[in-house]
Each structure stands twice: as structure tokens, then as C-alpha cells.
Design a protein that fits this description.
Layout: E1 2-3, H1 7-10, E2 14-22, E3 25-32, E4 47-48, E5 52-53, H2 58-82, H3 99-111, H4 120-127, E6 146-148, E7 156-158, H5 159-166, E8 179-186, E9 195-205, E10 213-224, E11 234-241
Length: about 250
């Protein structure tokens, strides 16, 4: 609230387009030079008590929207110039994605693990991991609660167990890594036509102090689901440290 005597100083670009005086109250409608006069209550500056005024908010709101648009534009420009994949692209399994794209979707998400929310990358990796008994689902896809472990075992884990494993050594080097590059793809693998192995080379800072940039190699083990609501989707069933393409 501002004293009415300060109105011309605080909001010099506003002009009164209507006023009326009632017993004990002053009612004023203001419009900025940049805003068209609108019906009552469409602009923000309306009801006034004696010696006080509610200032027009339309310009400040417009400035906030403009600032948000400019920030989004700069972020989009950075993504385009750097050649990076947009963070929300390919964040769910689909039969349209080959093994290479499935791994890329997970690695891109893990590289920006905390965008737009903490552990968003881990959540994406969980969604691309083979759900428990997905072949026998009859009601369509649902948010998975249990998936195949990445530890190279026939083991099924909850999301929290999955997240704990990714935050532990050595898989935590994937989270917010400096860079990654795809290596050799083995498809089909020796285990069958619905299996594939994708190698990735990762550069990430070590956990020691002071941090040192180190190179890591991992092999994604993937399986194509051939029946059920995930039919045709390539899903991760394991992640091993080292190059298992040789």
C-alpha cells in the first residue's frame, strides 16, 4: 500500500480513467499507457481506502512473463548450439527407439540428473529398465514399481533400491558426468536376437579430493520385450563396468 499523495511518483505512467467517491471510500480504476482500458476489475488497481491506493500490477506481471520467456529462449539456444539433446526428449520407452537411442535417452538424463527435479535422470533410467512381469500385464502400461536390477543378476528391485545402487560406486560416475560417447553396439548379441549390448565411454570427476577427471567404460545390456504392453520396446536389464563388446 502507498499513500495516495505519492501516487504520481510511484506510478507516474498510470492514468485514471474513472473515479467515483462513495462515503468513506474512493474508487479508482487505473490503466497504464501500455495497457488498454478494460472493464472494472480487469486491471489490478481498483478499490481504494482513504489516503491509500493499490498500484497497477499489469506491467510488473508482464515484465515477469517476459523475463521467463527470455530465460527459456536462452536455454533453448544453448541446447541448440551445444548439440545436446533436449532434456525431456525420449523420456519413456517406445517401440520406435532402437537400442542406441534407448541408451542415449538414459545417458542424457543421467548426465543432467537433477534437471528439472532432483534425481530426474535416475527416474528416467528406472522407467527404461525392464518392469517386473511386463510380458503378462493385461491392463496396459502402469507406472512401474519394480524393475530389473542393473547389477547383472536375475534380481528385481524397487525404485529406492535402484536409486541407491546408482548413487553408489561405481555407477555414481554416470550422474552429472562431464561427457559421454557411445561405443560399439553388439546386435544381436550371442544370447539371442532380442538382446543387445551397447558400450558407452564416460568422463567424470573422481570423488577424491581434489577431483580428477577420469575415463570410465560401461556396457548396457538390453532386451527387447516381445509381448504385452511393452511389445517392441528395448529395455535395460543390466549395466556392467568395462567393455563387454570384445
Amino acid at each position: 500500500m502507498a499513500q495516495i499523495g505519492l501516487l504520481t511518483r510511484v506510478h507516474t505512467h498510470a492514468r485514471a480513467i474513472h473515479s467515483s467517491r462513495l462515503p468513506g471510500q474512493t474508487d479508482v480504476r487505473l490503466s497504464c499507457h501500455t495497457c488498454s482500458p478494460t472493464p472494472r476489475f480487469r486491471n489490478a488497481a481498483l478499490s481504494l481506502e482513504p489516503r491509500s491506493v493499490r498500484l497497477c500490477l499489469c506491467c510488473s506481471q508482464e515484465e515477469e512473463r517476459s523475463a521467463g520467456t527470455a530465460l527459456a529462449s536462452k536455454f533453448s539456444q544453448h541446447i541448440n548450439q551445444s548439440g545436446k539433446r533436449r532434456p525431456l526428449e525420449h523420456r519413456a520407452p517406445t517401440p520406435m527407439l532402437p537400442p542406441t537411442a534407448v541408451v542415449a535417452a538414459q545417458m542424457d538424463a543421467l548426465q543432467m540428473n537433477d534437471w528439472p527435479d532432483p534425481d530426474s535422470g535416475v527416474r528416467t533410467a528406472f522407467l527404461f529398465s525392464k518392469p517386473f512381469e511386463c510380458e503378462s500385464m493385461v491392463a496396459g502400461r502402469a507406472n512401474p514399481t519394480v524393475c530389473h536390477s542393473w547389477q547383472g543378476k536375475e534380481q528385481w528391485v524397487t525404485y529406492q533400491q535402484f536409486a541407491d545402487a546408482l548413487h553408489g560406486d561405481p555407477l555414481d560416475s554416470l550422474l552429472n558426468c562431464d561427457s559421454w560417447q557411445p561405443g560399439e553396439l553388439i546386435f544381436p548379441s550371442k544370447r539371442g536376437e532380442n538382446r543387445a549390448v551397447q558400450v558407452v565411454h564416460v568422463r567424470a570427476a573422481s570423488r577424491q579430493q581434489p577431483p580428477v577427471m577420469r575415463a570410465y567404460t560401461f556396457s548396457f545390456c538390453l532386451e527387447r520385450v516381445d509381448v504385452g504392453p511393452y511389445k517392441g520396446c528395448w529395455m535395460t536389464v543390466g549395466l556392467r563396468m568395462g567393455d563387454y563388446s570384445v
